[in-house]
Amino acid sequence: MSEGRRITVLAGGVGAAKFLRGLLAVHPNELVTAVINVADDFRLHGLAISPDVDTVTYTLSGLVNSDTGWGRIDESWRVRDELERLGGQTWFNLGDLDLALHLYRTQRLGEGATLTEVTSEVCEKLGIKAHLLPASNHQIRTQLKVQNQGWVDFQDYFVAQQHNVVIEDLRFEGIEAAKAGPEVLSSLANSDAIVIAPSNPFVSVKPVLEISGVADVLRERRTKVVAISPIVGGAALKGPASRMLEELGFERNSVGIASLYRDFAGTLVIDQQDSELAPRVQSEGMRVLVTDTIMDTRDRAAALAEAALGEILISGEGKQ
Amino acid sequence: MSEGRRITVLAGGVGAAKFLRGLLAVHPNELVTAVINVADDFRLHGLAISPDVDTVTYTLSGLVNSDTGWGRIDESWRVRDELERLGGQTWFNLGDLDLALHLYRTQRLGEGATLTEVTSEVCEKLGIKAHLLPASNHQIRTQLKVQNQGWVDFQDYFVAQQHNVVIEDLRFEGIEAAKAGPEVLSSLANSDAIVIAPSNPFVSVKPVLEISGVADVLRERRTKVVAISPIVGGAALKGPASRMLEELGFERNSVGIASLYRDFAGTLVIDQQDSELAPRVQSEGMRVLVTDTIMDTRDRAAALAEAALGEILISGEGKQ
After folding, report:
1. Which domains are present in chain B?
2. Digit-coded pLDDT (tens) for B121-144
């Protein structure tokens, strides 16, 4: 009996969103929980912006710009263009439709709602049945030590500098004091399976794992945890994960990923292009599962979810 | 010699903006200062909104929606419509172009700039040569005691309830601690003439007058101060000024205005439709000047400025 099996996914942005979209095609949506990184969150123009929560939200509601994997489809830029005219900061490229969500969130947070509550409200409005849980309602801020620059904020590194710089270290300001958000630890403790999505291990997964209690649950439940490598053929499909592996002293491939996750996950899913790495992943002490990890369509993402979760999922039971 | 004569205008929103636009057509712009009410300012969605400053800014830069007298011409509503879909607050009707200014202001305030500095930056970007001075950089908040409701915030009364309710009292939270903004008092002290614009005497002019030092300068320089009545034929051209006069115990006409301003202004300009009130304004101890006060075109606003300021202005010297 796998009916009613609960799955929790540790999620960053684009890669996690694509995986979740696939998973939700083949599993009852209300049984899926995503614990989403909030260490990229920041304030701009006074607005509370949660890039990973938003990317997952837009993707699962069908509103995402599928060309970029983030932001809104049919987006317009009237506010940004006017802001540019005024000499304002436009490096983050806030679209008009996207802005509406930031306005809503900021207003609600100002009224005393938590990010968890706001996210739940938005999901309800947009028809998302899966549970999207911000990893924490406390402020955690990723900073990167960039060669010749010192410590810079994540969005400066990632968006303004387009991650075209060498990093030497990273830290998560506020993580010691941060508590896991409501239902995060219980969801991890009570799931039938836990997935570490194919997200950046340093800036998406690590700032979730380092929240008090999260890594402990994963270590205890290691055999139920399956991680999906975000690296294919030595390169991340998106973002700086592969160069970060190298810059931070790890192998620039799924073996490097295995060395990061081996304490937390029993299984690593690697791409079929990297099948020759399977024995080396096993040497790190992980089961290895070789399959197609490229999620350029929803069907391929669903197939990846089915492969990763095996008997946890019943094909055909899912719906969206 | 009236060359180089400096004029300072106490300003609210729409009426003041129209007057200023006329004045700037006939007087060197750099010699005109507007001290603008900030007691309507508020935060919505985390954004710092300054309605009167914005109305004056948009009007003087030619960007105003001339149908309404406030907001932007060629405005669009993409953000608001999406915010409505999310269940957000849309009662204030923030347009896309208008939002850009609020984003800019909020960002700059967050960086430590003052409202005075931000306003100056925006004026420079938009080519406004007159000096727009927020009355204060401290938080002042108009509240109205509404029949059967108790105290409500200004924007709730004015926008959400469309001022279709009876008010019993008003107060300006924070006014005791508020200091006049930079150059406000010196501008009033050093001007060759001071104009109280045809703005709402209770919610636009009073919260400027009550800032420490402002009323004192006007009392001392009373003969240099000319007020323009916002009431024509017993009704305000816009907004709730006339019903507020009655509700707060004043005559619902320019005599009521005179009784409010007589200590601060030597002269009251009233509309030609109300010429029969002239003796009664004089009985309040003010000079009276009867002219056309309806500013439906820039030329008529300019003519009003010339009539109100008389020999202070040299026609034809002005430019924009």
Report:
1. 7-312 (3.40.50.10680)
2. 999 999 999 999 999 999 999 999
